[in-house]
Amino acid sequence: MKKDEKFDFESFEKEAIRKLRSGKGLIGEQGALTSLIGRILKAAYEEEIEDHISDTKSENNRRNGSTKKKLKTGLGNIEVDPPRDRQGTFSPQIVKKWERQIAPELEKQILSLYAIGTSTRDISEHMDKMYGVKYSPSFISNITDRIIDEVESWKSRPLEDFYAIIYLDAIHFKVRENRKVVVKAVYTVFGVDMDGQRDVLGLYIGQSEGAKQWGRILENIRERGVQDVLFFCVDGLAGFTQVIEDIYPRSLVQRCIVHMVRTSVKHVSWKDLRAVCKDLKAMYSKDTSDSALEELDRFNHKWGEKYPEIAQKWKSNWAELSVSFEYPMELRQVIYTTNTVEALHRVLRKTTKTKGAFVNDQALEKQLYLTLQHSKQSWQRKTRGWPQIIRILKREFPDRIPEV
Question: What pLDDT does residue 363 have?
């Protein structure tokens, strides 16, 4: 098709009708609309080569045949003939030399399907059924691998120098390693900044959860810019508080009360479970630490003979459990438990529950990152009641709250 030729719609219409009547459909490798893409590309190539030859005519440049190339498109696979020039300086822009597809929206759809936990094989079948495009599972995997550099950049991005709250918790996944399936911990650092905005500061893959590993993670976020944190909310991992205090000595550490309740009632008879939980709630819902301790004594008087370990456990960990009692209820509600990060973990589990074991750490990391990006609306939101909370923080920590 020369530059001054017009597109023959009548010819295309006849060909499209013929294909439809023969049952080939609109899309797919032989679809009625698929050939239209080829014709449009051919016209575009002609425009580009003619412009290029015109620009380089003084250099004795001219056309020099064409090459053959297969492209994957949103409607199906097509074959095109990109033109060449004698000097080899022609570089088409509509589909560049090394590109093999012209439907970036399909890549986005593939990444979205992968982000919600769809397997590469299922994505391949979906693409074939919906668009007539035959992408192999390995090709799908290669597409998702393109975000690895983005993941690395995200992991090393600079952070804010101050966070009001950081929640620390781990979630576990199965990963193949040295021909065995092992359980690995994904350490989640979930922060709340001065504006009350939540953000995942990092996901770190390691072996079984431990305080030393958390220490290395905290050193990493400090290297990335985090200089001060008011509150760390953690579970009951041994040595957690000491590790945090070594790196952020001014921070307050609140142990998750919900975790504590769960471990306290682990061996309680199901007949007593509701009553024990009710009495524990009556204790940790008190207004002050002193009144809560009085309620704990009453709890022990009632249940101590049958379950002596419960009150003893709360009293031995009271320093970490009682931090939130020092502050008004609006603030207490957001620091007394790690439920905020557990809600994030539920989002991650939702997309990984159908997986067996990930082939390696990188595959797990890629899946979790894409899930986070796909589900931002469910976790990247402002903390409820933040205007009141920030007023409390400014009153309680006037020397540490940075000027906005």
Answer: 86
3-state secondary structure (DSSP) of residue 134: coil
- Report the distance separating Cα 244 and Cα 248, nearest Å: 6
Cα distance between residue 184 and residue 66, in whole Å = 53
Residues 258 and 384 in one domain: yes
Residues in the chain: 404
Residues 68 and 192 in one domain: no
CA distance 16 to 28: 13
3-state percent breakdown (helix, strand, coil) of the chain, nearest 5: 50, 15, 30
> Do 111 and 144 meet the contact criterion of CB atoms below 8 Å apart?
yes
Backbone torsion region of residue 247, taken as left when φ is above 0, otherwise alpha when ψ lies between -120 and 50, otherwise beta: alpha
The DSSP symbol for 381 reads: S
Amino acid identity, residue 215? G
Decide if 244 contacts 237 (C-beta within 8 A): no
Residue 210: CB partners within 8 Å, gap ≥ 6? 237
Q: Where are the alpha helices (DSSP H) in 84-119?
A: 104-115
Q: Which domain holds residue 367?
A: 161-396
State what percent of residues in the chain have pLDDT above 90: 48
CA 356 to each of CA 112, 138, 142, 360, 400: distance values in angstroms, whole numbers, following the listed order:
20, 18, 20, 12, 46
> Are 89 and 179 within one domain?
no
Instruction: Give the closest residue to 385 by CA, choosing from 325, 335, 347, 322.
Output: 335
Among residues 249, 245, 237, which one has the least CA distance to residue 213? Answer: 237
Q: How many domains does the chain have?
A: 2
Q: Which residue, of 55, 74, 96, is where some domain finishes?
A: 96
> Tell me, what's the pLDDT at 350?
85
101 pLDDT band, cuts 50/70/90, is low
Residue 59: exposed, middle, or buried by beta-carbon count in 10 A (0-12, 13-18, 19+)?
A: exposed
32-54: pLDDT as tens digits: 455 656 665 676 677 778 888 88
Model confidence, pTM: 0.71
Is residue 164 left, alpha or beta, with left meaning phi > 0 and alpha meaning psi from -120 to 50? alpha
1 — pLDDT class (breaks 50, 70, 90): very low
Last residue in a domain, options 96, 112, 130: 96
